[in-house]
Write a structure and sequence with these properties.
5-stranded antiparallel sheet, 4-stranded mixed sheet, elongated
Length: about 350
């Protein structure tokens, strides 16, 4: 071991974020296995790396037994022989003797090297997994590194590593080129055994819109305005229910912003997906009526648990239901109520 080796560990910690102590533990374990190939599989080996002295020592550990009771000389040593090495030995104790590694075959050194490389890979995967887990349920900005023309998937450089945004998780109709910067929502992170963490990215998740509102609306960020629920059909329409905790702050007005600047910034990210901002109410009849916006509701009657009947004028019926039932479905998801609409 030389100074360059320990300098490399320092560099690894600085650039990759892999702790030096972690790598020393992994390398000691790797070198222990490599050394055992030379001295016998039953031999108990201890490898010690000293970053202060910048050296490595290998020790063989043997149990001290009574003279004449040695069965395996690789793991045991008689008391008299042990005392000849050091007077401090006692029956039943463990004697450590240093092994010289200069004559260890290149094969063992190569095996140790491979295990060290594997330890670095494992540490890198663990680091990436931790970083992604810290970002779970958050929005990040990534750069398009590759576009798969066969299936439409995007390989993104997230700054932590590379992850795939599946075609099914992209907003319908949107197109991206290599080098584009796009926002994505990290919905799930799993630890991968071979290629690192498995990260699920999405631009269609309802919480993608929720996080966009949190980023763009200061009143939501500071907790003055609360997002109570979100329902979404990506690329088409989103309904978001908001509530103000300050009677002097209009929740809907705060989300729209002066001259619609705040809302337009969100719509630009969503490809001009329609957004209905709904005022939340603890009264389910009021909340359901608001959720069916832009339709005007004449009345709402609760009919059993989580079910209600809604009455609208004849000219508002198609608007309340929406194209292919979209408005009614989104309102039902937003409120958690099954809605039966009648003219």
């Amino acid at each position: 071991m030389n100074a360059d080796f320990f300098a490399a560990l320092d560099l690894l910690e600085k650039e990759k974020g892999i702790p030096k102590d972690y790598m020393i533990q992994k390398i000691e374990a790797a070198l222990t296995n490599a050394c055992r190939k030379e001295v016998g599989p039953s031999t108990v080996i201890r490898v010690s790396l000293d970053p202060v002295k910048q050296d490595m020592k290998v020790f063989q550990q043997r149990n001290v037994v009574a003279d004449g009771a040695v069965i395996d000389p690789d793991t045991e040593i008689g008391l008299s022989e042990a005392k000849a090495i050091t007077r401090r030995c006692k029956l039943g104790g463990v004697l450590e003797t240093e092994l010289k590694t200069k004559n260890f075959r290149r094969l063992s050194a190569q095996a140790g090297k491979q295990m060290i490389i594997q330890a670095i890979r494992d540490a890198e995967r663990e680091r990436q997994t931790r970083e992604y887990e810290n970002l779970k349920e958050e929005i990040i900005t990534a750069i398009v590194d590759k576009v798969d023309v066969t299936n439409g998937n995007l390989v993104l450089d997230t700054g932590t590593g590379y992850a795939t945004l599946l075609k099914d998780e992209q907003i319908p109709g949107e197109r991206h080129e290599v080098g584009d910067r796009i926002k994505v929502f990290i919905s799930e992170v799993k630890s991968g055994e071979v290629r690192g963490p498995i990260v699920t990215l999405s631009r269609i998740h309802p919480n993608f819109v929720k996080r966009l509102f949190e980023l763009e609306i200061p009143e939501i960020m500071d907790g003055t305005v609360l997002i109570k629920s979100v329902s979404r059909e990506a690329g088409s329409r989103t309904k978001i229910a908001v509530e103000s905790r300050d009677e002097n702050v209009d929740a809907i007005g705060a989300c729209i912003g002066k001259n619609r600047m705040r809302l337009d910034a969100i719509l630009a990210e969503l490809g001009n997906e329609k957004i209905d901002i709904i005022k939340y109410s603890e009264d389910p009849t009021v909340f359901v009526a608001e959720a069916l916006s832009p339709a005007k509701v004449l009345g709402v009657e609760l009919d059993g648990e989580r079910t209600c009947r809604v009455t609208v004028s004849a000219d508002q019926l198609s608007l309340a239901i929406g194209k292919e039932g979209q408005n009614a479905k989104l309102a039902a998801k937003l409120t958690g109520y099954k809605i039966d609409i009648k003219a």
